[in-house]
Amino acid sequence: MGRKIIFIAVVLFLSGVGVSATFTAQATAQTEEIFNNSGLPIPRFISVRSNKVFVRTGPALRYPIKWVYKRAGMPVEVIQEFDTWRKIRDLDGEEGWIHQSLLSGKRYAVVIEDEKNEKEGAFFHKKPDSSSKKLAQIEYGNIIALEKCDISWCKAKIDGFSGWIERNLLWGVYQQEKLN
User: Fold this and answer.
1) Is residue 47 within 8 Å of 66, Cβ to Cβ?
2) How far is 120 from 75, CA to CA, in rounded Å?
3) Contacts of residue 139, Cβ cutoff 8 Å, sequence gap at least 6
4) Does domain 44-106 have CATH number 2.40.128.20?
5) Looking at domain 109-171, which of 3.40.720.10, 3.20.20.210, 2.30.30.40, 2.40.160.20 is its CATH number?
């Protein structure tokens, strides 16, 4: 009789583990849906919509403001979603939460320094080729609007100037990403 009770107890315990595993899998699937409401890929680059955007410590208005973006077009990387909030990472690696209404799908990039040509600066070229005519010099830290990108070059514009710039000089577009 004692073995039968132990056997039943073991069966019930293992059944509970199976139910628990099923519940955990369902909860995980629900969590994935919650953290990717938009159906868009994560991570992805987007931009700040206006000249005053609050970045918060959590995904709701009740969370304190960490900092304020004061420049429309600043590229940020979405790394997580929760309801109508997006967790972003910026060029400096800082992370925080922004409401989706304060973000835009329009693509921008920040011109960053290249270790091999620090003094020369970044240039817009007439064609996607480093030997083509240089049209304008772009200072590091400037935000440029992206028009399209191939594997090595992006066509962009800033302040009425347009041209091709090497992709490795930009933060705001992934290495293998193509934009049309």
Assistant:
1) no
2) 24
3) 111, 121, 122
4) no
5) 2.30.30.40
Closest C-alpha to 166, from 180, 141, 46, 175 = 175
Q: Tell me, what's the pLDDT at 180? A: 86
| 134-138: strand order across its sheet | 134-138, 122-125, 161-166, 153-158, 143-149, 108-111, 170-171
Find residue 80's DSSP bridge partners: 87
Cis ω before 43 (30° cut-off from 0): yes
Cα separations in angstroms, 177 against 45, 109, 161, 162: 10, 13, 23, 20
* Token pair 């990108």 in the structure block, residue: 149
Q: Where in the chain is the domain with CATH 2.30.30.40?
A: 44-106, 109-171
Per-residue pLDDT of the chain in tens (180 residues, 90 and over written 9): 555 444 444 444 444 444 444 433 444 444 444 456 788 899 999 999 999 999 999 999 999 999 999 999 999 999 999 999 999 999 999 999 999 999 999 999 999 987 765 566 799 999 999 999 999 999 999 999 999 999 999 999 999 999 999 999 999 999 888 888
In whole angstroms, what is the distance from residue 53 CA to residue 69 CA? 5
